[in-house]
């Protein structure tokens, strides 16, 4: 792995880690639905602009419906869940729970997509569940009662990511594929269309929102253009450079950045027992995403 790849990996993790801080700022100010909609809308605008500037393809080759639906599953619902969680949890909690995505993928693959569940991956799932229990029971009973709904929202989001990964393979990759930038832009369009009715309903019947909050607007713009649009481009370059397996190591780096930004800019103080649960979840992710000897033997070498 080149130094430039390492720098790109760290920068990507810093961007995605910062998204939880930005949602933590914007969601209480604008509301979960409004924040989620604005994130995917600005993400779509940013990706569409990038495609225009880079003269990318806007062709979906007959997969438009599937791409839009993937946007709902992979962005619309998860971003809404994270925005709800941002009103209930410190940014560090959401960042750590986001790392359960590979574990969710293993569970969903085994239950619904006939994926082989190896002993190592099974151990990762069990370990991850233990980590979630440790985080959920951190602090006193009153705090746990407040945190639990936010934790459930985060787990719904990561379950959606797990489902979307398998559906992308079935609907897109096994049907001739699609340019990754076009797929990303189309998915954000699908998420925008999905959240638009909820956004309109929130504006017309929801609580009054003070839209003149500059800090919240800066956070929404940052999470849309930087943590969504720009991050996608960095991720695609990373996959092309070091391969999808090595790119998954970003999963380990997002939680430390999420906790760091929350501590630096939001004065979030997390109990020591939280970090024990976080370490257990990171161990679970490692067990899930690192291939066994047999899997490594069957994989092509990435240089």
From TrEMBL:
Record InterPro entries: AA-Vitamin_Transporters, EamA_dom, EmrE-like
Organism: Izhakiella australiensis
Annotated family: Belongs to the EamA transporter family.
Residue ranges of domain EamA in the record: 10-136, 149-289
Cellular localisation: Cell membrane
Name of the protein described by the UniProt record: EamA family transporter
Bilayer-crossing regions: 41-58, 67-89, 95-114, 123-141, 147-168, 180-204, 216-236, 248-266, 272-289
Pfam families per record: EamA (PF00892)
Chief site of localization: membrane
Membrane topology annotation: Multi-pass membrane protein
CC annotations in GO: membrane
